[in-house]
Amino acid sequence: MDIAETIERLVTQGGFELVVCEMKKLGRRHLLRVVVDHPNGITLDHCAALSRRIGDHLDAVDAVPTAYTLEVSSPGVERGLYRLADYQRFTGHRVRLRTTVALNGRRQFRGRIAAVRTEEGPVIILRNEAGVETPIAFSDIAQAQLEVTAEDLFRVAEAKRAAREREREKDAADTRP
Predict the structure, then answer these.
(1) What proportions of the chain, in percent to the nearest 5, are helix, strand and coil?
(2) In this predicted model, what pLDDT tens digit does every residue of 48-84 receive, in sequence order?
């Protein structure tokens, strides 16, 4: 099992999602960056606990053969999209993306993910503000991230508030005689 698979197993055991795991060289040292998410959000306490769990395990099995710094963080509101599943999950959301090749003379695109098609190889359908749809092969995407508006932030905050309220109501119901 490689390091990324080990980290994904450790992260998902706690009910979290591994967004990305990457190793970068910083001078003589290496940075092991682990970005995690959770439907109810990520707190600093979550990151600290996951950092201890991951670091302790990797050190115990000597999984990283060089000196490294472990960084565990949340993806932030404008999280990157890395896997096809990310595009499927965030269909309907606004994104900014850059392609590896020019499409119609452009490499930078903005719009909403209108659809993800997989029939003849994965294709992301991006719809701009004018309603024009652009098909972009998943393999041609160099970088993509969510583009969050104030409306999106309010909607997410309201959804989290409602989820916390449901959890409190459930806890109260569970403690009744």
Answers:
(1) 35, 35, 25
(2) 999 999 999 888 887 777 778 899 999 887 889 999 9
